[in-house]
Amino acid sequence: MPGNMELSDTAARLSRGDFSTLRRRLMKAMLGGVLLPGLPRQVLSHADFGPVAPVKSVPSLACVLSDGRTATLVKLLTGKTTALQLMFTGCSAICPIQGALFARLQGMLPNQLARNIQLLSLSIDPLSDDPKALSAWLKRFAARPGWIAASPALAALGQVTALFRSGVNAADNHSTQVYLINRGAQLVWRTSDLPTPREIADLLLQLV
Amino acid sequence: MAAKWSIGVAALWLSVVSVAQTPAESSARRGEQLFVGEEPLKGAIVGHDDALPAFASKCVNCHDPAASEKANYGSKLTRAALLEAAARRGGPPSRYEPGSFCRLLRTGIDPAHILILRAMPRYEIDDAQCLAIWNYLILPRD
Hints:
- The complex is a heterodimer.
- By secondary structure, chain A is α+β, with helices and mostly antiparallel strands.
- Chain A has helices at 2-13, 16-30, 73-77, 95-106, 131-140, 157-164, 197-207, and strands at residues 50-57, 62-65, 70-72, 81-87, 117-123, 147-152, 179-181, 186-190.
- Chain A has an 8-stranded mixed β-sheet, with helices on both faces.
- In chain A, strand 4, helix 4 (95-106) and strand 5 (117-123) form a beta-alpha-beta unit.
- In chain A, helix 4 (95-106) packs across helix 7 (197-207).
- The longest helix of chain A has 15 residues, at 16-30.
- Chain A is globular.
- Chain A starts with a helix and ends with a helix.
- Chain B is mainly alpha-helical.
- Chain B has one domain.
- Chain B has helices at residues 2-19, 23-36, 59-62, 79-83, 98-107, 127-137; strands at residues 42-44, 86-87, 93-94, 122-124.
- In chain B, the strands form 2 sheets. Chain B has a two-stranded antiparallel ribbon. In chain B, strands 2-3 form a two-stranded antiparallel sheet.
- In chain B, strand 2 (86-87) and strand 3 form a beta hairpin.
- In chain B, helix 2 crosses helix 6 and helix 5 packs across helix 6 (127-137).
- In chain B, 27% of the residues are buried.
- Chains A and B meet through helix 4 of A and loops of B.
């Protein structure tokens, strides 16, 4: 309670202008200065979606891609603005919906490659999702260049789930949120579950 | 000649018997086709403008009768689970009947007036399709 009273006193002392300035500064600090002011305002007090504050650097973990190449997750993300979804190709329930969502999203991103925007389907089942399975996943949704799929090394799976707070459903064991990562390979935004393609597209275009 | 006639008549009788179905059986057969996606259903996630591709909105994707309760993303839709009174999603005991079942498919509101998960598509489904799925699900099974 003393803390709340202190906050109330502080707020009362601030004029409307001061308060607006303070709010803007807080917003800017929370977004790490990476998002533009026009981004939709989520419920900032909600821990599970909206801006990630402070931003989180993506760990440098090894991944295998659908074409058989290997790369670190950081390398895959650096220099591109990325929308990332967690999935696994053996999932018949929610993952087809997620794939359809990304397919629709890709159709909303004109000049995607020129803008260095990429979509990444990141598997949480590295034991099953080899390059062949990942390639089939992309083909199933008619993915075009700019949409990649990867599996982390098994040993790194814990880091992936920790970063993205996975594990919301016992059957599928992953979130249906979309994670936005800036060109510096930092996680800056979590959407709500199953966001609309338009919402993701708008966020990506503002992050570029 | 008589033997050939007998065989022919018997074959015809068997084929008629095998395809003759009551309206409820016929409806349930269609319901199965809808449930597993042999006949496509049009569904969308709440808030999304576009319908999902049919393969992504099949009932069986999340309510596979052959899978265990834990392996299914959604609840298992057995005859008992639908018809017997049970507390669902923290609500008071309720049971399904065709009207409330169809309302759930279209609006996501269950018989206890509780909204189900957004991850389940809401379907543009006509009465005959809906009743067909219902008839399929409540078929007595061993």
